[in-house]
Amino acid sequence: MDEINPDMPQCDVALVIGANDVVNPAARTNKSSPIYGMPIIDADKAKTVFAIKRSKNPGFAGIDNALYFLDRTYMLFGDAKGVVGELVKELSGANGRH
């Protein structure tokens, strides 16, 4: 976290796989949150976020993740291995489109 967080505002894309509380900006911004003050990866500071999860269910802390509701966050639901495989195909042009 200490190494990557200073660079997050310059990141074009953050790919979050299965994480919840450890990328929840409430830990930084919401003093009434049960995770306030917890160290997190500042994924919300990237220009675009792709979050791969099986559902939008809360994590261990039992609270919603504000990251998942940002306009620049795209939720990709499903098994991470399958979703990442599909992303790689799309980005590599293996789907037949150029």
Model description:
By secondary structure, the chain is of the alpha/beta class. Helices cover 17% and strands 16% of the residues. The protein is built from two helices and three strands; from the N terminus they run βαββα. A three-stranded parallel beta sheet has the order 1-2-3, with helices on one face. The longest helix has 13 residues. The termini are far apart.
Task: Describe the secondary-structure layout.
Blueprint: E1 13-17, H1 26-29, E2 48-53, E3 73-77, H2 80-92
Roughly how many Å is the radius of gyration? Answer: 14 Å
Largest sheet descriptor: 3 strands, parallel
The helix/strand order is EHEEH
The parts where pLDDT drops under 50 for at least 5 residues are none
Task: Report the span from N to C terminus.
Answer: 36 Å
Strand order in the largest sheet: 1-2-3
* Number of extended strands: 3
Structural class by secondary-structure content:
alpha/beta
Average pLDDT number: 91
- What fraction, in percent, of the residue positions are helical? 10-25%
Our count of helices gives 2
Strand composition percent: 15-25%
Q: Which shape, going by the Cα principal axes?
A: globular
Give descriptors for this structure.
alpha/beta, 17% helix, 3-stranded parallel β-sheet, 98 residues
How would you summarize what this structure contains?
This protein is α/β, with parallel strands linked by helices and 98 residues long. The protein has two helices and three strands.
